[in-house]
Design brief:
- It is a single chain.
- The protein has 377 residues and is mainly alpha-helical.
- Helices cover 72% and strands 0% of the residues.
- The protein is globular.
Length: 377
Amino acid sequence: MRGGREPTGYVTEFAALRGILAIWVFAFHAVTIAGVWDRVPWKVGTLLHAGQAVDVFIILSGFVITNLLMQGRESYGVFITRRFLRLWPVFIVCITAAVAMQAIGLVPVNGEPMLVHFLVHATMLHSAVPQWLLPNSSVSILIPAWSISLEWQFYLLVPIVLMPSLSLAARLVLVSASAFILARVLAPRLTGFDLFFLPFKAHLFWIGIISALAYRTLLDRLGRPSNWPALLALGAFFAVAILEPPSRSAALLIWVLMFAVALQLRVGEPRGLATAASAILNAPAIQWLGAISYPLFLCHEVCIWPVTTMLRALGVSGIPLAVGNFVLAAPLVLLSSVLLHHWIERPAIRFGKQLSVNRERSRMGLLKPAAELESRS
C-alpha cells in the first residue's frame, strides 16, 4: 500500500469495513424483528449488538470527515451542501418508502402523528428533538435513521472545531476540549433527550478525529518529532477523561485493530495479519459491499418487515422466521441497495462534486457567474 497509490487519508480497508458493518446491522435486525434476539446469551448479545457496528460507523465518520476537512479546499457552505447531498437523497427515499409501508400495515407505526414525524425526519435533525416535544422522534420511521441524524449534527459542527487556519496541535486541543465539554459536561445535564443526540456520542467522533490527525501526521509528516510527547500526553488525558472502558466496547477494539492494520500497511512494513486483512478487505465483493453500504444500511429494515409480515401470515415464527428473514430479505436488500446507489446516491454525489468544482473555478475567476455571462450575450 505504500508508494502513494491512494489519496492521502483514503483507506480502502475502511471503505470495505463499512460494507461489513452494514451487513452486521442487517443481520441484527433480521433476528430482532423475528423476535428471537432474547434467546442469544447476554454476553454474546452485548458483543454482537448492532449498536457496536453503528459505533464503528461513527468513529469512521470522524476519521473520514477530518481527512476531508484537513485538505482545506472547501468553504463551510460548500462542505455542508456536499454532505447534505451525500446523505439526504437516499435518506428521503428510504423514509418515504417506510412511511408508505406504515400506511398499508407492512411496517409498524412507532410515532404519531405520522406527518409530523416525517417532516421532522426530512430535516435530518429528528434525533436532536427532545422527547417531551415529539416522543419517539429518533426511531419513529426507520430505526437506523437515528444515526443519519447524528451524522448530520456532526457535519454541522465539525468544520468549526477543525478550522483550516489552526495548527495541528491547536486542532487537537480544540477538538478534544469540545468533545470533553459535549460528552462530560453537557450530556449528563441534558434531560428529555435520548442517547442519539450528538453530545452523547461526541467521544466516538472524537476517536475518529484524533485517529485521522495521527494518521495524516504519520503519512504527511505534518508534525515535528519533538511535538509528539506533548500531543500524546494530551491525547492520553482526554482518552482517560471521556472514553468508555475498552472492556465494554467491542467497537473500540474493532477500530483499534483496523487502525493498526491501516498504519502497518502504509507506514510500516506490511506483513502477517495486516497483509491478510488487506487481502480480504480489498476483495472485489467486499469492496462492492462497501460501495453500497449507505443505501444498504438505510433500506434493509424496509425490506425485512414485509418479509416478516408475509411469513407470520403463513404461521412462521421463532428461529425459522429469522432464517426466512435472512434468506428472503437479503436479495431484496441487495437489489434495493444497488438501485439506490446507482440511481440516487451516485448522481447526488457527482452533483455535489460539480458544485464544489464550479465554486472553486468561480472563486479563481475561471468560471464567470451566470448573470455576467447573460449580460454579455
